[in-house]
Specification:
cytoplasm, 29% helix, Rossmann fold, nucleotide biosynthesis, 8 helices, ATP-binding, nucleotide-binding, 14 strands
Length: 313
C-alpha cells in the first residue's frame, strides 16, 4: 500500500487572520484551532487547541509593526516546537524590520539579521516570504527561505491594462533592478528617480533620469509606507509630460496620512497585495490577493515539488 503523506496543519497569527483564511481555503484546508489568552497588562499567550505532534505546520503572519506582530509569530513558533511539530514553516507575506538590513551609520542595529536569528531560535525550520526589501536578507538565515515575487500577480494585471507607450519607473536608485526586471518582462522603457533624504521618510530633493513625455508610467516598488516617495514621483512625472502614472507596491504599510497623500496626488491607481491588512478603503487603491500564490507554494513545499515556476523575476 502506498504511503499517504498526511496533510499539513495551517494556523494564523491574529494580524493575518483574514489572509490566512483565504490561503487555507485556496489550499483546500481548514484553519487550525489556536486561541490567545491575554493579561490585563498586554501580555498574551497562544495555545494550539489540537495536537501538532509529528505534523508539518504552517504558521501565517506578517510582522509589520507594531512589534506585537513579531512577538506573536515567535510565541507561535515556540509553542509548536515545544508541542513536537516535525516541520514548522513561518509563512510571512511581509517580513518586517527588513529596512534595517545593514549598518548605514555607526552604532545602529542590523534588525533584519536579528529577526532572522530570533525566528530560527523560536523553532522555524523554513521561511516562506514575498518581496523582501533586500534580497540578501535570505543569507541571514541558516534555514531554507522561499522568497516569492509578487510579479506573478502584478505582471498579468499590467498586461490586462493594454497600455500604449508603457514605461516602468523606479522611485529610487535602490529599486532599479526590480524596475529593469519588470521592463524586460513587459518589453518597455525604464526611467529612474534620484532622491535625497534629509531624515527617514522625508525627501528633500528628487530628480528624474529618463524621458516620460507622452508615456503611461508604472512606478514599481516593494513597499509603500508614508507614500511620500510615490506621490512626489508621480507629480514629478506628470510635470514632465507623462500621460498617466500608476504604482505597484507589494506591501501597503500606508502609515500616517498616506491615504490622503495618495488620494490628493496625480497617481491614477496604486496596486498592492493583501500581505498587510488594509487600514481603510480608497478608490485609488486596488488590492490583489496573494492567497493563491502562498497556498500553491505551501502545497508544493509539503509535497516536495519544485516552486521554480513562481520565480518570474
Amino acid at each position: 500500500m502506498a504511503y499517504q503523506v498526511p496533510e499539513p496543519k495551517i494556523f494564523a497569527c491574529t494580524q493575518s487572520a483574514e489572509l490566512a483564511a483565504k490561503i487555507a481555503k485556496s489550499y483546500g484546508a481548514e484553519l487550525g484551532n489556536v486561541i490567545f489568552s491575554r493579561y490585563s497588562d498586554g501580555e498574551f499567550q497562544p495555545s494550539f487547541e489540537e495536537s501538532v505532534r509529528g505534523a508539518r505546520i504552517f504558521i501565517i503572519g506578517s510582522t509589520n509593526p507594531s512589534s506585537e506582530h513579531l512577538m506573536e509569530m515567535l510565541l507561535m513558533l515556540d509553542a509548536a516546537k515545544r508541542a513536537s511539530a516535525r516541520h514548522i514553516t513561518a509563512v510571512m507575506p511581509y517580513f518586517g524590520w527588513a529596512r534595517q538590513d545593514r549598518k548605514d551609520k555607526p552604532r545602529v542595529p542590523i534588525a533584519a539579521k536579528l529577526v532572522a536569528k530570533m525566528l530560527e531560535a523560536a523553532g522555524a525550520t523554513r521561511i516562506i516570504t514575498m518581496d523582501l526589501h533586500a534580497d540578501q536578507i535570505q543569507g541571514f538565515f541558516e534555514k531554507p527561505v522561499d522568497h516569492l515575487f509578487a510579479s506573478t500577480m502584478f505582471l498579468p494585471y499590467l498586461k490586462s491594462l493594454n497600455l500604449d507607450n508603457l514605461t516602468i519607473a523606479s522611485p529610487d536608485m535602490g529599486g532599479s533592478k526590480r524596475a529593469y526586471a519588470y521592463s524586460k518582462a513587459l518589453e518597455s522603457d525604464v526611467v529612474i528617480c534620484y532622491k535625497q533624504r534629509a531624515v527617514a521618510n522625508v525627501i528633500s530633493h528628487m530628480e528624474l533620469i529618463g524621458d516620460v513625455k507622452d508615456k503611461n508610467v508604472v512606478l514599481v516598488d516593494d513597499m509603500v509606507d508614508t507614500a511620500g516617495t510615490l506621490t512626489k514621483a508621480a507629480d514629478l512625472m506628470m510635470e514632465k509630460g507623462a500621460l498617466s502614472v500608476r504604482a505597484i507596491t507589494t506591501h501597503a504599510l500606508l502609515s500616517g496620512d498616506a491615504y490622503e497623500k495618495i488620494e490628493n496626488s496625480q497617481l491614477l491607481e496604486l496596486i498592492v497585495t493583501d500581505s498587510i491588512p488594509a487600514r481603510r478603503k480608497s478608490d485609488k487603491v486596488k488590492i490583489l490577493s496573494c492567497a493563491e500564490l502562498f497556498a500553491d507554494v505551501m502545497h508544493r513545499v509539503h509535497h516536495n515539488t519544485s516552486i521554480a515556476s513562481k520565480f518570474l523575476m
